[in-house]
Fold this protein.
Amino acid sequence: MNPLYPMVRKEAIEDLMAARGVFFLLIATLVMSAFSVLLVSNTELSLLDNAEAVYMMAGIIVALGSLVSVVRGSDGYAGERERETLEPLLIAPITGRQIAVAKLSGILFSWLFLYVLAIPYLWAVGSTGQNLLPSLEYLFITGSFMVVILGGLSLALSAKMRSSRGALSLSLTILLLTGSPVVLGASLRQSAVGRLLDLINPMAGALNTLDSVIIDSQGFSFQVLRLSILIVYSLLVTWALRAATKRIEP
Amino acid sequence: MPVIETRDLRKAFDGKEVLKGVSLTVNTGDIYGFLGPNGSGKTTTLRILLGILQPDSGEVSVLGINPMVNGASLRSRVNALPESHGLYGWMSAMSYLSFFGQLYGMTLGNDEYRSRLEQVGLDPDDLRPVRTYSRGMKQRLGIVRAMINNPELLFLDEPTNGLDPRGRREIHDLLLSLNRQQGLSVVISTHILDDVERLCNRVAILDNGEVKYEGQPVYESRGAVHYRFHLEDGESVLDHWSFQNIVLLEHKDGWITCLIKGISPADAVRALVMKGLPISEATRVSGGLEDLYLEYTSGGSL
């Protein structure tokens, strides 16, 4: 048996078996519950257009997925090193790259689980609108790209840093930096700098894609440039992860 | 034939030289003791031999393979128990063992995993997560994991740490039987000199990144070691003593005192037992490994 398979299986179920994973999923569920209740019951928020409500919910789910991937990624190598479970893995006949693929797959499984959990919430806020299905499709696509980009980057940092807290701090800083241009005011976002930031920032790319699909009902041809940028970032991060995990030290 | 050969291994961390030209030879069938104070470079050497750490310079050959070039292939033929157990706390013993079995590409059935756990006194039906295990149970599980791929060469870092005397004896017996029956070569890094005296036929003493001594675990400058053995029986063997390297000095109240020359105490015990002397206890009188260790190390703690 290829050692990749048991390793992927272990990474996929580890979060569900460990208390940490259950805690994260509980928090994610609470956040989604609170937000969906607000969207349907708060006087001001309930006045939002149905598409706006779905877009806001989708944005929250992408943010939660990104956060979970950063936390899991920064723990990937440095956490195992601290818990002293990395050395038996390195002694086994599995390559550093196979371990990296398994760990990235584990992060994607967490995202998949979160996505499945999020579907009823999206349905609750968007079942009466017309863009629920495309929003589910594009949420999955953009969310998966963000998870690969931020989770892969966190994993690469974790492979090179000895402290999982250090890796987590740096990864969270990167997450905040990618998220911060999104909260720029509307006028600033229309400026040349704002447009450039929107173009090169993967988080902005993901959210603008959801905006375009859910609110503006635009088709695939309008999303090509933004999705291409997400693909380029994913490839760059995969390359960085490959380089960082070529030789892992115990 | 050597299973491990290193020549002039050097390794530095942050400019501090940890290994200063380590040269070792471990032969097929050896149980090789690796001794030295904390920070002497034992773990670094073991990691280089396993191919998970790159030396700055020097030559390494393990089972004829350069670990830096073909590490994955080498690691399917060897295994190791690091100083930390490295167990996934959320797994049960069975799931942990089967995970590593699959990682090594072993096609073992449930019965095989069960029998391996039972061999070291662990209950395969115990579904508790291993984080609830005692230190001794974790150590036993780590040892079973290190044997999962039936390795030709086994590296053990403090294998009897945390075990009670009975547990230590069981691990000794297991290693000796694997060494005798399957020709398993073992490298043991340990702080427990008694483990080395009971198990090892050769030792290396590392101090400050240098091999200060490599050879038999006897204090050669004094020529011999004195041992006392308690016998349950075997009077007839005592009447026809025929051991070249073991001189019988005294026999009194079921105890014999011997002078062991040119072979390790472990080999002497093996020879005596093979001749039908049922030894129930062995005690070093003087001139043993402790003297050797103290002479070749520079006062670091064990």
Q: What stands out?
A: Chain B has a mean pLDDT of 86. Chain B has two domains: 2-215, 225-286. The longest helix of chain B spans residues 165-182. Chain B touches chain A at residues 47, 50, 52-54, 72-73, 75-76, 79-80, 82, 84-91, 99-100, 102-105, 107, 145 (CB under 8 Å).
